[in-house]
């Protein structure tokens, strides 16, 4: 049975759709055991054993393959920097028509293994990847308990779950104005509809990555610092994520639009797939207020927008209600020489227009899966969240074994030095952990003189 691609259509022809999980596996499993564990883990989810094919009208579908996918697994005897690896892997398009959605890059070390999972966002979000990691680690433990026997039980494959408009409309509906706007664009687009091919996208993607290499840096907040940070945040009535945005707002020094990713999963949607959306808020650090007063204000703004699913799902409903090929065309606006009046009017009206979001974070919080599996353990997991052309800086954040990792992908533009911004964020987190009184950056510099 085929399943129409709706939520996630924006990733189909997006040149930046690659997620990367980078982590250590402690306990030194054999390469053969790890390969067997990966191959078996992928069998758990039908969405990872499909192809994505289009019809003559430009609709795309998940089409189950006659035989299961054999995942791409590569063992390397060298390790690139985070920046080199991210640019390398992000610039290699997946062949979705063949069912290529993931690449597994294994780097053996003397006493652990570096594991990289590279995934096209169209099949799953960060929580989905955590599910896959858990299956891999459980398989490794099973093989160890079975004295190295690589034969694993074939799992029952979970059917594809997609977020449809009917599901979304249980939480929110388009008002009359938005519905009329969507209908207007669909009607106008009908006569000028463009259907893009994978070949056209491949050319576009290559051009994009030649012109837009990204910067990547990784930072780690120690378990000791995180313990203090969590206690302080609880005492002040905010979250660690709100603290992160407060410090970032102070570093920017002016009112900025900031985005944050919201988990839209419900009990109904527990399998592999895309169940997240992002919200955009105006953040401003008021120097006339105390640090913690600023933190509470920013916390309340973020909490208010995400207190139920109606706000984060509204954008998904709008996108799902538009002709999918119009969404495709909006991605091609980032291709040199591509122009279209209706497409431009759509992004100016219902998207960001020519603006970009200076700062966005996808924070998975404390890891939602176990980290220890028999003699094997997950450690230092970094999440690479794709730097969409509409973003200037995207942070992937997660806390594993008490340590918080931050993977930042960014492009320095609009006069902003993101490396300096991120230095201030990391320094600010450490200062909070050490109980340093939080003042403005200028005041802190004076105190240090």
Strand content: 15-25%
* Corresponding CATH superfamily of the largest domain: Nonribosomal peptide synthetase, condensation domain
For the report, how would you describe the main beta sheet? 6 strands, mixed
Separation, N- and C-terminal Cα atoms = 68 Å
Q: Report the count of strand segments.
A: 15
Helicity range of the residues?
25-40%
Return the CATH class of the largest domain.
Alpha Beta
Structural class: alpha+beta
Characterize the overall form: globular
Low-confidence stretches: 440-449
Order of helix and strand elements from N to C terminus: EEHEEEHEEHHHHEHHEEHHHHEEEEEHH
Could you say how many structural domains there are in total?
2
What is the CATH architecture descriptor of the largest domain? 2-Layer Sandwich
Topology:
Blueprint: E1 3-4, E2 18-26, H1 31-42, E3 50-54, E4 60-64, E5 72-75, H2 82-90, E6 102-108, E7 112-120, H3 126-145, H4 165-168, H5 176-190, H6 198-211, E8 215-221, H7 223-236, H8 240-252, E9 256-263, E10 276-283, H9 291-305, H10 310-321, H11 324-332, H12 341-350, E11 359-366, E12 372-373, E13 376-384, E14 393-400, E15 403-410, H13 418-433, H14 441-448
Parallel strand pairs: 5-6, 9-11, 11-14
Antiparallel strand pairs: 1-4, 2-7, 2-13, 3-4, 6-7, 8-15, 9-10, 12-13, 14-15
Quick recap:
With 449 residues, the chain is of the alpha+beta class. It has helices at residues 31-42, 82-90, 126-145, 165-168, 176-190, 198-211, 223-236, 240-252, 291-305, 310-321, 324-332, 341-350, 418-433, 441-448; strands spanning 3-4, 18-26, 50-54, 60-64, 72-75, 102-108, 112-120, 215-221, 256-263, 276-283, 359-366, 372-373, 376-384, 393-400, 403-410. The chain folds into two domains: 3-146, Chloramphenicol acetyltransferase-like domain (Chloramphenicol Acetyltransferase, 2-Layer Sandwich), CATH 3.30.559.10; 177-365 and 388-448, Chloramphenicol Acetyltransferase (2-Layer Sandwich).
